[in-house]
Amino acid sequence: MNKPKRILIVDDVELNRELLEGILAALGHESEMAEDGIEALAKLKLDIDLVLLDVQMPGMDGYEVVRRIRQNSDVSDIPIIMVTALTSKEDRLRAVEAGANDFITKPIDKIEVRVRTASLLKMKESQDIIRHHQADLEIKIEQRTSDLREAIQGMIEAQRTTHEAHLDTIRRLAIAAEYKDQNTAAHIKRMSFYCAVLARALNLAPGEVELILNASPMHDVGKIGTPDAILIKPDKLDEPEWRVMRQHPTIGGEILRDSPHELLQAGAIIALSHHEKWDGSGYPKGLSGQDIPLYGRICAIADVFDALTSERPYKKSFTNDASLDFMKEGRGKHFDPKLLDLFIENLDEVLAIQEEQRKNIQIETDLDVEELR
Q1: Active-site choice (5, 124, 189, 223)
Q2: Which end of the chain is least crowded, N or C, by CB within 10 Å?
């Protein structure tokens, strides 16, 4: 059985209200009464389906009531039938302009009330169904959006965890390559930060800076294939030993090559090229100038600076000033001159990283450049 419709009857004459109430009751509808516009506007909150509104009322006439209903977004879609003895074209146009949907003329006829109200009540019912459907849909969409956000957040966290695990594995691989040196992990961290300083100074994209930061620790991964006796030898290497040592870039490139992952691809480039020199006297391929990959040229500066300023099994450390003087002598020979200039221009940031990562300053000593293994 259909739910009875609730119709608001607005008329300042009680007899007219009672007449309409009787007709509506016979049609199966419920009625709410209002004797003026103020009461009518207040009672619109009672889930009204249709308004039967008298035109000529003291204070606020029917036209004004219609206008106010249409201006209220909460009830603006309620159908309104003007109940009036006015029959002129001007009066009807005025009612339509105000927002009325239809008219019933006085004296009131039961059949006319039934016909006029039926179509408008059906329209209101359809509007309510659509509105309720939209409300339900909005709730479902909101819930699904919330569920989707939660799922996406879970996916983000999982990807972050996987990415961090991937980076951690790479760092541990790099450390394993020089495990015999207890200072290697600190060296890898410092030189990778120095590489990032240079990459930012070159105005590389943030993603590329991050790539260099995370790929540069793999520069010496090829030392996994270098005998311990050579890696930790406290004395100067002889020529046969240097031939073995010079193989580690090639070994590193072989270990990392053909990976589908961008990070390992960058690591392969760095491993293979970080001992090349600007003048072509480096190894393993003797590349020179711009033929040396940018990542390798960046890493060469960061690696040598940290090697010079760090203590190794075969050497004491240089001071920062002595290290920089030594590197300036290699400008245009060992190092890309523009990159070295940028490194020096950003030295404050480099030294801040050094201070944060290393607490002890090592003493100055002499060092043959060939001992930078």
Answers
A1: 223
A2: N
CATH of the domain at 233: 1.10.3210.10
- Express each pLDDT in 250-297 by its tens digit: 998 998 888 888 888 999 999 999 999 999 999 999 999 999 999 999
Distance CA 318, CA 290 (A): 29
Q: Kindly state the DSSP code that residue 100 receives in the 8-state scheme.
A: -
Q: How far is CA 211 from CA 39, 196, 258, 297, in A?
A: 72, 9, 17, 15
Whether residue 112 sits in one domain with residue 54: yes
- Are residues 197 and 116 part of one domain? no
Which DSSP helix (H) or strand (E) runs through 322?
helix 320-329
For the packed helices 206-215 and 294-308, what is the interaxial angle rounded to 10 degrees?
50
N- to C-terminal Cα distance for the chain? 92
Owning domain of residue 25: 6-133
**223 tagged catalytic:** yes
Instruction: Render the burial of 196-206: b for 16+ CB within 10 Å, e for the rest.
Output: bbbbbbeebee
Give domain status of residue 171, yes or no: no
Domain CATH for 129: 3.40.50.2300
The reply to whether 239 and 347 lie within a common domain is yes
